[in-house]
Amino acid sequence: MSQTAPPTHLRIHQFAGLKPGPRLLVTAAVHGNEVAGVGAIQRVLQLLDEGSLTLLQGTLTMIPIVNPLAHRLQRREGDRNLNRNLRPTPIPQDFEDRIANQLCPWLAASDVLLDLHSFNNPGPAFAMLGPRNNNGDLEPFRHQSAESALALAVGTTRIVEGWLSTYALGLKRRADKASDGSRRMALQQDPHYGVGTTEYMRSQGGYGITLECGQHEDPQGPEAAFKAIVRTLVLLGMVAPGSAGVEAADPQRPVELLQLYEVIDREHADDQFERAWASFDPVSEGQRIGTRADGTPVLAPSGGRIVFPNSRAEPGNEWFYLAKPSDRALT
């Protein structure tokens, strides 16, 4: 738990166009140390305030610091991970529960979400999108085409799908383990634990993407976030093409589309990687990725790429993901 007095409010900015149109929500610092989007949102606010950027239609809502406690502490979490088990809570147990009770109605009141993040290891920005259209129990969805267009519009050369279905596999394994009675473990074993901002958004009838703007300290991260906001506004017809000097992403650029298919938890503090991995490093079938504390090798079940390797993961949390080429058509 945090040892500082928690903030008592969220700062939310909203611009209502005089013509009806899409309702876009842009968020940043859901994880407090992921700040590329914070400066990007502040930059857009300034342009709107000074008239250099003109809202043509719709409603633009921006929350530059979604988790102010974690941001104040300069770390990923305040009391817990806000981007897991995100839902309204009648009896809040921690700071993130209280934030969720304010954030979820804003998500539900929006049509589209652009959620700005960053990651630990070096690597280029990439977009994460949701499932294909389906009527299943896990994540029913009907906005595949619009969400795919958004993922393509922000300008990355890599797009990743398959988050919630992959996370569900890890949750099944966690559920088989004996609980230590802690709230943290109870949350980690909850079937809703994989639900974050975009997943909650889809559950309320909207759509959205997560934009991972590169490594936390990447100086290009804020620019990637800024261009993504403006390009999203252009895509939705909310600002004019070429606004703020941002050109559309090259439609002919090569885009690698990957599908997550496995998540591996760190089970013990002495579990170690074989080497210093970066997101999207290639792995071959049978390659040793790491070693468990008892000496058991952790091998890649098939060829593909490693995603979000975290050498500092707490036991019981995600250590790394694995991805393979996707057969999905984005257009």
From TrEMBL:
Residues 20-118 form the Succinylglutamate desuccinylase/Aspartoacylase catalytic domain. The keyword Metal-binding applies. Pfam families: AstE_AspA_cat. It comes from the Bacteria. One of its GO terms (molecular function) is hydrolase activity, acting on ester bonds. InterPro entries: AstE_AspA_cat, N-alpha-Ac-DABA_deacetylase. Its cofactor is Zn(2+). Keywords: Hydrolase, Metal-binding, Zinc. The keyword Metal-binding applies. This is Succinylglutamate desuccinylase. It comes from Roseateles depolymerans.
